[in-house]
Design a protein that fits this description.
The structure is a homodimer of 373-residue chains. With 373 residues, chain A is an alpha/beta fold. Chain A has one domain: 3-Layer(aba) Sandwich (Rossmann fold). In chain A, 34% of the residues lie in helices and 16% in strands. Chain A is built from eleven helices and 14 strands. An eight-stranded mixed sheet of chain A has the order 1-4-8-5-11-12-13-14, with helices on both faces. In chain A, a hairpin with a 4-residue loop joins strand 9 and strand 10. In chain A, helix 3 packs antiparallel against helix 4, helix 3 packs antiparallel against helix 7 and helix 4 packs across helix 6. At the A-B interface, helix 3, helix 4, helix 5 and helix 6 of A face helix 3, helix 4, helix 5 and helix 6 of B.
Chain lengths: 373, 373
């Protein structure tokens, strides 16, 4: 019954995409903190055609929950298309008639790339607690490896939302020469303290669940209640108060005293806990919280000092996970660094989730930016 | 180290008060939902002197966390005074030189009145899961019983913050003829959905902790991690983002990578979990969420239709647990019902907790109201 509120929008006019591709790294993947996992597999997807001079490639960076499947359906019968299908498609914001889109499942995420729940060939058991704590640099590095593998020297543009937008900013700081333009939506150069606190609480809920067993819980088939609860906290931070009032108010489920919002949160949390992986959740979210471009580069302006491509920053006025003021700070730093930057603060009742809902508001500026390159 | 951030302010110019008083009800207490616990004890405190015609009595209604000890110190050596000592005292907002103040520990709360952790004389064990689910009406009823016991016909005024303010509104609806004036601070006639959702999540954290054992956990001496986590969620809802930025930002604890806000939340949650009781927490908070004067009386205007005393409503512009708009709704309903009402929306960075911090802002209007009666 809650499908109507599901965040990913159903778009009927989608296309049939290729299955995911695998890049096997025999030498393994080396994490920022020094660990190496070998062998290591990176899963990615591509859509559209790479042109002859390889100048039409767009990288889409995914956020915490989704994976490399950002557009299309594997078969026409799939119930849902990829997670950003409203943006990526033929005639859409990132137009596949003229662009080649790449989306890479980053290390730590549970959707195909070697992850905490992957089997360690040395032991035949999941890596579990032994999987490294990833960083946003690791995410960018996995995307760079795929980029080189595909023979792409420079992305025409890179785009991402939420954590994906933080990856975009990390690209701008680490590899500015390899980016033609960037699109950063609902993200900032570090997570502000209120959002850090909610993230921390979410991780504590997982780690305090005795069934989590320090991360080595894969012998049990049951979804973790701690992960379900953490997702409820997460959902609350994605929704604006306006959306909560409009969708639920203080309404009860028919014939019961249960609040509708209660039923909704349990449903969304439960769905997530049966598919996502708790070890991935705590690692990916911690990576988000640890990223801090001010701290890492001395200042935001220093972080963006080598960036020469155009930048489009989009914030949403009801997003309190990444408030507009944080995005304005990036805008100011980029401007001082001489970057051609535009910041669009979009009024919407949809909070942080607007990047998965308000395509009529975010696609036109993205289209315009790409057309201007 | 976190004492500096403790919510209750230290006030040195306080007085030595009487010890708590006990009202033993041999016939027991009958709860709204029909259960009776007998015998039953109600704990309350009084400060100041009741005048001859018993016309100077002010009821202070407490919120979720504290109890009947709202002002003074039992001995000069007490580290902290009562929880609203900044308001109640000699020469303070509710001036004990001219007023007699009563504060009643309500049923469900763990601070003395027969509670879930009290021993059931029939079994010699705590009531635990068998303790009834309380309502705000039950809280008001316990205060009415003490009022009658003290021979007070009409309160000169009643005052409360947060849940205490909700009790004040319930008094206005149930016993308007027994109130000379009301002071309702940081509260509304029902908890708005965003706050309900955070409350629900907090209760789920307790109830999902295996050590909670459905409420019969008293054989273990350990504090419940679920209660500690719930309190962390609660704390987040009490603090404004401004306060979080000012107090913590993204700062780390000296020499570590631990965020200061993390350390703060663990400290506050831990302190709470070792003193408060989980069965009380879930019952008192559920009572708060269940109260809905619109639903109960058909409309807010109907709820306040018999009220004739003056009303002072105070909201805080950074309180997102009880936003200003909710208080404005009460103001409008009271006005339509012909009540002499004033609504003060106070700008402060201190969020919901402002009623325990900003005495320089809330005492003057309270003083003024009492002087006008």
């Amino acid at each position: 019954m809650w499908e109507e509120w599901a965040v990913t929008q159903f778009v009927d006019d989608t296309f049939v995409c290729d299955p995911p591709k695998t890049l096997a790294l025999a030498e393994g993947f080396r994490f920022t903190h020094g660990e190496r996992i070998a062998p290591f597999e990176i899963i990615y997807e591509t859509y559209g055609e790479l042109n002859e001079d390889r100048s039409n490639a767009v990288l889409v960076c995914h956020a915490l929950s989704p994976g490399a499947h950002c557009a299309g359906k594997y078969t026409p019968d799939d119930i849902k298309p990829g997670w950003w299908d409203g943006m990526v498609g033929h005639g859409k914001g990132i137009d596949l008639r003229t662009h080649f889109v790449v989306c890479v499942n980053f290390p730590g995420s549970p959707w195909g790339t070697t992850a905490p729940r992957s089997l360690d060939p040395a032991t035949g058991k999941p890596y579990g607690s032994r999987y490294p704590w990833v960083t946003v640099e690791d995410m960018v590095e996995s995307q760079r490896i795929v980029m080189d593998h595909l023979g792409i020297t420079k992305w025409k543009a890179i785009a991402g939302n939420s954590l994906g937008g933080m990856e975009v900013l990390m690209w701008a700081a680490l590899h500015p020469e390899r980016i033609g333009a960037l699109i950063c939506i609902a993200a900032s150069a570090s997570v502000p303290v209120a959002s850090v606190a909610w993230h921390l609480i979410g991780r504590k809920l997982i780690q305090s669940d005795p069934a989590f067993k320090g991360g080595d819980y894969y012998d049990s088939p049951d979804p973790l209640r701690g992960l379900q609860l953490a997702r409820m906290v997460g959902h609350m931070t994605y929704l604006s108060n306006e959306a909560l009032e409009a969708k639920f108010g203080r309404r009860r489920r028919g014939g019961t005293r249960q609040f509708e919002v209660d039923s909704y949160l349990e449903y969304q949390g439960g769905k997530f806990a049966t598919s996502y992986d708790a070890n991935s959740y705590i690692r990916v979210q911690a990576a988000m919280d640890e990223m801090d471009l001010d701290e890492q580069f001395g200042s935001l302006q220093a972080a963006f000092s080598r960036l020469r491509g155009k930048a489009l920053l989009i914030s949403f006025d009801t997003d309190w996970l990444f408030p507009t003021a944080e995005v304005a700070r990036i805008e100011a730093a980029m401007r001082e660094a001489g970057v051609d930057v535009a910041h669009l603060d979009i009024p919407t009742p949809n909070g942080h989730d607007a990047f998965l809902i308000d395509y009529h508001l975010i696609n036109p500026p993205v289209q315009e930016l790409l057309a201007s390159l």
